[in-house]
Amino acid sequence: MKKPAFVIAATNSGAGKTTLTLGIMAALKRRGLVVQPFKVGPDFIDPGHHTAVTGLPSRNLDGWMLSRSYNTTLFSRLMARADCGVVEGVMGLYDGFSPVSDAGSTAELARWLSLPVLLIVDAASMARSAAAVVKGFAEFDKNLRFAGVIFNRVGSQSHLSILKEAVSHYCDVPCLGGLVRDTCLVMPERHLGLVTSEEAALSGERLDHLAGVVENHLDLDGLLRACEVPIPDIPVEDAPAGKTRARIAVARDKAFCFYYPDNLELLERAGAELVFFSPLTDERVPEGCHGIYIGGGYPEVFAEALAGNGAMRESLRRAGEKGCPIYAECGGLMYLSRGIVTESDKRFPMVGLLPFSTRMLSRFRALGYREIRLLKEGPLGPEGLLARGHEFHYSEILEQGETGWEPLYKVVGRRKGEARGEGYRIHNTLASYIHLHFGSNPEIAQNWIDYCLKKNRPTP
Description:
The protein has helices at about 15-30, 45-55, 70-80, 105-115, 130-140, 155-170, 205-215, 220-225, 260-270, 305-310, 310-320, 330-335, 445-455; strands at about 1-10, 35-40, 60, 85-90, 115-120, 145-155, 175-180, 190, 195, 230, 245-250, 255-260, 270-275, 290-295, 295, 325-330, 340, 345-350, 355-360, 365-375, 385-395, 395-400, 410, 420, 425, 430, 435. It has about 450 residues and is of the alpha/beta class. It folds into two domains: about 1-230, P-loop containing nucleotide triphosphate hydrolases (Rossmann fold), CATH 3.40.50.300; about 245-455, Rossmann fold (3-Layer(aba) Sandwich), CATH 3.40.50.880. Strands 1, 2, 3, 4, 5, 6, 7 and 10 form an eight-stranded mixed β-sheet that branches. α5 crosses α6. It starts with a strand and ends in a 5-residue tail after the last helix.
């Protein structure tokens, strides 16, 4: 079975990769195609926009957090229900976990999936030099196939003609078009990246404009023809029916929207019924739940509203103090703390389950892949269990010296020898700045559900 599928990569971050990806997805959907979106790397925001545009959940592919077989199986399984697949890369094409290998890079995933690459080049203030850039990228890894190049932020049609002539003269990579600078195509951003789809950053009018620009200025037909690839026939497995063992409350709204879809799917496969609630607008945790999952997001942006919902804060605090298992990541950790202190030193009270506050900084406090090892048995499994994830936040913990507990995680980053304690456990609550991908160790989902059932204290 052959279907068009390709990877959209760029020479560097900020080249317009996400904007062009969304435009191409929108234009393909406008043609009546079922588009399955993917995102390389540990990203939550871009996949949210993919989902809003295509109507299908975007899934993360990652060469460092996830095994090769996990990536290839996930891709093939989801492609069985789609007409075409679009994979948005991360950073520059060859950027990843290591400066001397392609581990965790877009290039690695393109090779694993045997997909052609559509290269995005920011051509502002470039002419003949653009050919050198394209040639260098095309020849850096002979195992990659390039479907074409698209130039972004082109000054004019005459500028694009110069770029096309240079590339056709020096490179074997076809130019499939270019987009002239257009302020309407710029996506709004904040400190962790683009504004989330939950905040309706991409309006219908903006999306229609973006799709129209792509249709008018890019050779989509040529792209689809160049990207017909064989898709392995892997049966689509639906979540098992009739095996619900536990109800898990999942915080999900504008403040908490950073979840890997795989994590939620793996929890369901482990027997969880997921019940979504909003810490912003609901007054209490859903009744009869065996556990609570609070993912990341932007609690600092909605700190005033979260602080103002005292009923929900009290409901969560009582649930945690009574022993209901709670698993929280990054933004969830901030919400469960005593409070959030803004850059302007304004303090907003939060749930108060964790004996510290968090403070926002003007630049990121931590960024990168992380591997964790459990130092002792806990909510996620036995001592020695390994899992991988990612850490990216602008806040830091205050008053940590007053806590007096031992960390549950030993965390290792990219630099050899770097190790530290993490994973803050109080009662049956486990909170961490690290977003774990349960696909890195699928036992985690089963272990946590078992832990919730063992404690067996459903929320009242």
